Amino acid sequence: MNIESKHVIIQAPIEEVFGFVSDLNHFEQLLPAERISEWESREDYCSFKVQGTATIDLQKSESDANKRLLLSSGERSPFPFTLEVFFSTRPEGDIEVYQIMKGEINPFLKMMVEKPLQKLFDFIAERLEEVFNK
Q1: For residue 44, what are the domain limits?
Q2: CA–CA separation, 1 and 102 (whole Å)
Q3: 93-133 pLDDT, tens per residue?
Q4: Is 72's pLDDT higher than 90?
Q5: Distinct helix (H) and strand (E) counts, the chain
Q6: What is the H or E stretch that residue 122 is in?
């Protein structure tokens, strides 16, 4: 299963946005606070429980400075997945950011989680836009 978030345009230097997203201590600010509990984080790892579902943990796997960040699910996540965050400078001088989640999910679970995950990744994109375009 692949889910692509909204593409958002951010009015900030790419180094600043990439640095913010690369430090997983900041990831909590991008999540819906009313649906998240049991938050833990370090610069390269975060873990949280989504209301009514499972615990998710993310580990920073790879990074192409100011272009791409790859996060991988950890042992506590309900299924294996990766989350790639892409950054690109546009000719206008602003930057475009979006995410692609790739997961190994059985068809039954896919029916249950696809729409909520799409909403979550779109929410994360919108929050990132809000944080930098105040």
Answers
A1: 2-132
A2: 6
A3: 899 999 999 998 888 888 888 898 899 999 999 999 999 98
A4: yes
A5: 2, 8
A6: helix 107-132
